[in-house]
Design goal:
Layout: H1 6-15, H2 19-34, E1 58-59, H3 72-98, H4 107-133, E2 143-144, H5 146-152, H6 158-186, H7 190-221, H8 225-236, H9 247-252, H10 257-266
Parallel strand pairs: 1-2
């Protein structure tokens, strides 16, 4: 019997449509990689779109309904949006792990992104369980498809993928999660806040992994870190990086302000003048 490769395992998770089953398949495949049941990375053709359940309805980001902050329904809306982000993050981690065999990344690269996929699966299940405690479930509300669409703009090369997905998308989570936790605590939702604290802690390691292997590829290609990252963002990231930044968490992840401060300063302000 031919052993499953990591690429085939990733494809299996990517093509799984049911959200909870995708999280369960991810945990199973990650455990098989760690214990050596899956040992070869391999390669395979990957889907341009991952499997998705019939619900939620996917809308353009600008068509998403506004959330009522503070109410139970507002917190359900927040957690539903976070569950959708985590579901996308499972697929993004698997895709990054095996999409670029030509990059010939070291073994620990694959270890890192299997771990990220496993973390994101655990996050999704925690948030969906909390939604259930609030009388809701993933799929009850519409969601947007921007994360996957933006990521696929970088499917041609591992360097921009690393620059955008972990070092922008995940890093934004470092900035946004602490104030969200404070709002949840202010409304007495200690359980949702507890879950987000776990996610915030894990995200530091995810950003650190992205930064580490982004710099690894830059070193291989003889490219400077900061200006190359700025070039990647101009090409592939829609919109500016928005302060305030969680400088402490970003620094812990190996992304000092040298990465992002100059990029923010060079952008035009809202009146179209230089900042």
């Amino acid at each position: 019997m031919t052993k499953l490769t990591l690429a085939e395992a990733a494809k299996r998770a990517l093509l799984t449509e049911d959200a909870t089953e995708k999280a369960d398949v991810t945990a199973e495949m990650a455990a098989m990689w760690r214990n050596g049941e899956i040992s070869e990375v391999g390669s395979t053709d990957l889907p341009d779109r991952p499997g998705r359940p019939p619900k939620p309805e996917l809308l353009p980001p600008n068509k998403m309904p506004k959330r009522k902050k503070g109410s139970v329904q507002g917190r359900i809306g927040l957690l539903h949006a976070l569950a959708h982000i985590e579901l996308n993050a499972i697929d993004l981690a698997w895709d990054l792990c095996v999409r670029f065999p030509e990059a010939d990344m070291p073994r620990d690269f694959h270890d890192a992104w299997v771990q990220v996929a496993d973390d994101e699966a655990r996050h999704f299940k925690m948030i969906n369980k909390r939604l259930g405690e609030l009388g809701a479930a993933y799929g009850d509300l519409p969601a947007h498809d921007g994360l996957w669409q933006t990521s696929m703009d970088t499917a041609y090369d591992i360097l921009p993928r690393l620059a955008v997905v972990p070092m922008v998308f995940e890093a934004r989570g470092l900035d946004a999660t602490p104030p969200t936790i404070e709002r949840l605590l202010a409304h007495g939702d200690t359980e949702s806040a507890r879950i987000l604290k776990i996610i915030a802690h894990d995200e530091i390691a995810h950003v650190a992994a992205g930064r580490k292997y982004y710099e690894y590829v830059c070193d291989q290609r003889g490219l400077p870190y900061y200006t190359t990252w700025h070039d990647m963002l101009r090409k592939h990231f829609r919109g500016p990086l928005k302060p305030p930044f969680n400088d402490e968490a970003r620094y812990e992840a190996g992304m000092p302000p040298d990465y992002y401060q100059d990029y923010v300063l060079e952008l035009p302000d809202i009146d179209g003048d230089s900042a």
